[in-house]
């Protein structure tokens, strides 16, 4: 075994200008050890350049504040991705109406952090005008046509996908670089800027409803907006599930289990199976780029692993019509419109406050869909760069150079040319890196870190170590309200979407994280409880679109709750009661 106390293959030096880092927020989109290919090709330096540019375009930073050749906004420590909290605190100090403490609450929830020590350059008045100009622009926008243009560009690149099997190894590397250098940067920069612009909108809405003293009001007012890109797969899967439910032949095929279902469906001769396969292939064309760990280089995408979405469809076919996401969204929209009407009546004699509310509601209707579409666009572009790398991995595995196709992710992007020139020379390196990766994967990274004060990796606890007591009857666990509604049911722990077939109708899904690859399972659950997440995470937005009671940020939920516990989830109050 190698020495895991040394820096991981792609670890980066932490910032001394902004020394405090956190796993908060970033842990839900990068929960595992970062592979060398991911950090060098997708995250790390490629994302850092665009992130810095996005913050400069927002008006909160100047590019020359960042170290040109070193990563500042992100951190990678023994393979685990961190977000620079100090940098976000500077953002809060410069943002009119915000504070460094507000950034702590946004990214950490109720977790404690080292005290904020202001830097002389944190709060500079010259940033105020620039940021206020961005705020004014964001709050005045009635549409985001640029996001629609990016959607069309992503579709165009997907339609122009080359035949990877006919390309040589050098051409596969060259095509990946074309996508990542010519297409991907503007997509990811726009999405990162959208995250900050979206925070303006949510902040405006929370300010507008604060006088009503109802902590769940802002959440209800962002439900049932429609046109949410990350909810679209749920709607498509629901229709496929109805095809199964309405066909005796399809039902029989699904009843035989998921493991070889794709092959059985494609070899079946009856018209129902042919109709389903045609519709499922359309689904994979449109949504095949989705997965959990969506930024990783070896993400298990639905296109590459169709058993995953088939397992989700299998659960949806068992649901009654009351779980139809179209009807749920309609109900939520009606409830939202009623709440808005009532608020307008209450503010009829307060024109200024009413105007603030109307402006916030207009902006939410623009930015919630735009933010989700922006993420979808970016992932779709990224998928076109990952596929040639997957082909390279499959090819070397078939040739006996790799032990498995996934070995490609143990190669750094800057090593790809050397790999193509002499694949055999990397065999020992790959074995060593996988052993190292597996050892790091057993560890629980610290939630907070400071530059120069990183605890030795030999002292990090193992993920399997008991770190939480089981919840007891009558105990109330708290988190963040993500979607209002109350449901009581049996807890079902799902640690991977591939385990979706274990979820029975009426059960409460308890999961570790909340990226869009999980959200189709939501439709099959009575309610959702998640370890991490924030009120504006992708899963929160999708749960509000689907009308699934949801509580996020329930600390160690998957350790404190076990299968079979009876729970009551109150998504409006953000509570989980154990019975």
Key terms for this structure?
single chain, 579 residues, alpha+beta, Glucose Oxidase, domain 1, four-stranded antiparallel beta sheet, 19 helices, Phosphohistidine_dom_sf, PEP-util_enz_mobile_dom, PEP_Utilizing_Enz, Phosphoenolpyruvate-utilizing protein
How confident overall, as mean pLDDT? 92
Strand tally is 12
- Biggest sheet, open or closed, and with what strands and sense? 8 strands, mixed
Q: Please give the alpha-carbon distance between the first and last residues.
A: 46 Å
Q: Which descriptor suits the 3D outline?
A: globular
The number of helices is 19
Helix fraction? 40-55%
Explain this structure.
The chain has 579 residues and is of the alpha+beta class. The protein has 3 domains: 1-140 and 427-461, no CATH class; 145-421, no CATH class; 476-578, 3-Layer(bba) Sandwich (Glucose Oxidase, domain 1), CATH 3.50.30.10. It contains 19 helices and 12 strands. A hairpin with a 2-residue loop joins strand 2 (74-77) and strand 3. The radius of gyration is 24 Å and the shape is globular. The mean pLDDT is 92.
Summarize the helices and strands and which ones pair or pack.
Elements: E1 20-22, H1 36-41, H2 44-58, E2 74-77, E3 80-84, H3 85-94, H4 100-108, H5 126-140, H6 145-159, H7 169-209, H8 217-220, H9 232-245, H10 248-255, H11 261-267, H12 271-287, H13 307-316, H14 325-346, H15 351-398, H16 416-421, H17 427-441, E4 448-450, E5 476-478, E6 480-483, E7 486-493, E8 508-511, E9 527-530, H18 538-546, E10 550-552, H19 557-560, E11 566-570, E12 575-578
Parallel strand pairs: 7-8, 8-9, 9-10
Antiparallel strand pairs: 1-3, 1-4, 2-3, 5-12, 6-10, 7-11, 11-12
């Amino acid at each position: 075994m190698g020495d895991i106390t040394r820096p991981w293959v792609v670890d980066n030096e932490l910032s001394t200008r902004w020394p405090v880092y956190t796993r908060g927020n970033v842990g839900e989109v990068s929960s595992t050890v970062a592979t060398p290919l991911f950090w060098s090709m997708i995250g790390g330096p490629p994302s850092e350049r665009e992130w810095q540019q996005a913050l400069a375009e927002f008006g909160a930073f100047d590019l020359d504040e960042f170290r040109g050749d070193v990563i500042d906004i992100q951190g990678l420590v023994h393979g685990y991705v961190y977000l620079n909290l100090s940098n976000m605190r500077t953002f809060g100090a410069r943002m009119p109406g915000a504070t460094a403490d507000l950034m702590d609450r946004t990214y950490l929830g109720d977790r404690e952090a080292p005290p904020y020590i202001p830097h002389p350059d944190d709060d500079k008045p010259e940033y105020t005008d620039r940021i206020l100009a961005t705020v004014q622009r964001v709050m005045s926008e009635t549409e985001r046509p640029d996001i629609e243009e990016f959607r069309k560009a992503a579709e165009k690149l997907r339609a122009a996908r080359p035949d990877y099997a006919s390309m040589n190894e050098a051409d596969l590397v060259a095509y990946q670089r074309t996508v990542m250098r010519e297409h991907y940067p503007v997509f990811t920069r726009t999405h990162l800027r959208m995250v900050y612009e979206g925070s303006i909108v949510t902040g405006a809405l929370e300010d507008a409803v604060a006088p009503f003293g109802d902590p769940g009001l802002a959440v209800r007012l962002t439900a049932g907006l429609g046109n949410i890109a990350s909810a679209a797969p749920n709607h498509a899967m629901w229709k496929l599930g109805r095809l199964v439910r309405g066909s005796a032949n399809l039902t029989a095929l699904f009843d035989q289990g998921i493991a070889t279902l794709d092959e059985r469906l494609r070899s079946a001769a009856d018209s129902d199976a042919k109709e389903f396969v045609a519709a499922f292939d359309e689904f994979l064309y449109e949504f095949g780029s989705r997965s959990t760990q969506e930024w990783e280089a070896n993400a298990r995408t639905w296109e590459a692993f169709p058993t995953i979405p088939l397992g989700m469809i299998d659960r949806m076919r068992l649901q009654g019509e009351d779980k139809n996401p179209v009807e749920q969204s309609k109900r939520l929209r009606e409830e939202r419109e009623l709440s808005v009407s009532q608020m307008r009546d209450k503010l009829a004699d307060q024109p200024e406050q009413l105007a603030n509310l109307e402006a916030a509601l207009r902006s939410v209707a623009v930015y919630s869909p735009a933010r989700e579409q922006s993420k979808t666009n970016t992932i779709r572009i990224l998928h076109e760069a990952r596929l040639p790398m997957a082909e390279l991995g499959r090819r070397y595995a078939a040739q006996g150079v790799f032990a498995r196709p996934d070995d490609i992710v143990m190669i750094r992007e800057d090593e790809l040319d050397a790999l193509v020139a002499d694949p055999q020379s990397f065999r020992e390196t790959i074995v060593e890196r996988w052993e190292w990766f597996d050892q790091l994967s057993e560890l629980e990274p610290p939630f907070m870190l400071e530059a120069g004060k990183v605890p030795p990796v030999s002292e990090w606890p193992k993920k399997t170590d008991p770190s939480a007591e089981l919840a007891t009857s009558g105990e109330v666990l708290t988190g963040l309200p993500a979607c209002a509604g109350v449901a009581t049911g049996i807890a079902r722990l799902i640690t991977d979407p591939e385990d979706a077939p274990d979820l029975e109708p009426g059960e409460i899904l308890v999961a570790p994280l909340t990226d869009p690859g999980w959200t189709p399972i939501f439709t099959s659950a009575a309610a959702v409880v998640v370890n991490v997440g924030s009120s504006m995470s992708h899963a929160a937005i999708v749960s509000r679109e689907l009308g699934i009671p949801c509580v996020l940020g329930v600390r160690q939920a998957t350790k404190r709750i076990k299968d079979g516990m009876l729970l009551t989830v109150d998504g409006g109050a953000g509570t989980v009661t154990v019975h």
